[in-house]
Amino acid sequence: MRKLIYIVLLLHIHVYGYSQSSESIPSIKLIEKTSSDKVLLRWAPDNSISWQLLNKYGYKLERITTYRNGAHLNEVERVILEDKILPQPNDEWTRVFNTDTTDQYIAIAAQALFGNQFKLDADAYSKDGLAQLIHVVKEREARYSYALFSADQSRNAAYLSGVYFEDNTVKKGERYLYRIHSLVPDSVEQIQSGKVLVQVKEAFPLPQPERFAAQYKEGKVTLTWDWLTLSNTYNSYWVQKSQDGVNYYDITKTPFIQPSLNEPSPNMVYMDSIGDQEGTYYYRIKGKDAFGEWGPYVNPIRVEAYPVMEFVPEFKVYEDLKSGSVMLKWEIEEGKALGAKSLLIARSETEDDKGFKIIKEGIPVQTGEYLDIGPEISNYYKLGAKDKVGKINWSYKEFIQLTDSIPPSIPENLLGEVDSLGRVTIAWTPSPERDLFGYRVYRANKKNGTYIQVTTREIPSTTFKDSISIKTLAKDVYYKVLSVDKRGNPSELSAPLQLKRPDIIPPSPPVIAYTKSTERGPYLEWYPSGSTDVVNYLIYRKGSSAVERWELIKEYGIVEGKQFFTDSTVVDLETYHYLMIAIDDANLESIPTKPVAIRKFDTKVRKGVGKFSLNRGAKGIELAWTDPISGDYNIDIYRAVDEETIRFYARVPKGSEGWEDIAVDDDKKYQYRIKVNYEDGSSSKFSESKSIKY
């Protein structure tokens, strides 16, 4: 065999599926590719030790027919396709290599299988990253990886390495189970067989790579595509480039290998550096499967390359004193703004980059100016140059502060409330000035009193929370607000906001100043409470009995000055107790006054007779009346004849409701009155006078 030259490939290789298996028993992996008249088989052990042993002892390939003419076979048919498959001898390697000396993977596989030494120099491959992932592994691992990689890239290399078989004896419509067995004695190493089930049918064309995209930035084109979706189809890719969309040339000298399945990103990335070149470029890719066959090219992508923008604009700012606007001016020399497509202006009230907002964009790249008619009092400006893809080169910041001596407007529409704990919330309408800095809040206990600032600094909010004492005699609290702009100009104080404090202090009680007993009943003189918020006064009464309760007998509204009250609803001779309570507008009650005891004055006048009348009788003058209901008494009758003085005439006992005066003469006028005399010495008043002529 002609000496094979060890060819150094600028490849980026990793062990993709052929590394040491995590299973405890080594195994052989078998894959297939089927068409209507043949089946292609590829296999590989899952670790380098098994690979070395199988290169020595070989493989056995078996085919089992399980299905034919639309039905499963009752007895399967077994055929040994190859009883021992080993790497081909040197003569065969030489013959195949001489038929295609451009197939460098044959040389790589030969060096991996038969070379005396197989050392990797990481520095030699650093440009394209060859062996960056495996340059520290043992020589056996390196031989194993390169041999299987070469078999993936070249069908001839796979055939010569003893990991490929082409079955041309298949029939369309039949189903086969292929099994590849290890001929390594179990005493040396147990290796599980590989198997694959095949249905002979028309071959499907290989697919185009998916989601192919390109992006240009600063002299570099980044190509990306989805490798994960077709990871079971393609193991490497080829990248081509064109400047006219017709004539393409390779920009990958070796296949571009897909990442490991453990990689987090589903995208492959290839970067093409074009430097300062400008113009239109076209890119396309195709994939290669494990049988060394290329799939179709993807539809090409067009990329526009443009120069890197290095231009940074400069500008000046000026204040327009008449309008209060800011003028920005800049100059751009011809040919100095290469790559810039437009200008834009940003403004901020602070120097912090996060505060800048764009106020104008799409400005032509030429000498010009811009009038900012809505600036703040303090302004930072930046002028930016934007390139084709949106990259912006910003100028240095320029600061300008406008002249301002006009105070902001006075806050209006103050509203507020105070809760039961003395917590105050007030709010007002925002001031319209754009340069407003904040507000100050002031408080007083009197409307025209001294207002004290209760905010420690200007607040930006139009609401304010305060806390006040509610244990005070001041019933109201007053607030005023002023606004301050960013130059420190204050407005005048707002109109006062009057808020009522929650009332938790009961009113002072009224004063009962004088009492006495009268014929009409107990009499009181009293003075109103000293509290100004009293709206009601209540008088309560109860009798002398311990079981009696206080009852409300009189209610007053708001009164002024000394007041008088006589209780005419009491019973004679009984003692009664009286007290008063004041109630304020918060419905709080004063403490009761000290009870006073009063009884109705006893005039000794008692109840007299009722329904007194006179009638002429057969023997004299008949007197009739109704007696009092209770008591021990006698009834005295008084009489006068003609013009005589009326005097006591007769006495009748209790229970008599009539009496006849028989000592009368004709043609005389008789006048009568009746009085009741009680056993305790009291008496009634005289009844009304009644007269009759006999």
TrEMBL record:
<dbReference type="InterPro" id="IPR013783">
    <property type="entry name" value="Ig-like_fold"/>
</dbReference>
<dbReference type="InterPro" id="IPR003961">
    <property type="entry name" value="FN3_dom"/>
</dbReference>
<dbReference type="InterPro" id="IPR036116">
    <property type="entry name" value="FN3_sf"/>
</dbReference>
<protein>
    <recommendedName>
        <fullName>Fibronectin type III domain-containing protein</fullName>
    </recommendedName>
</protein>
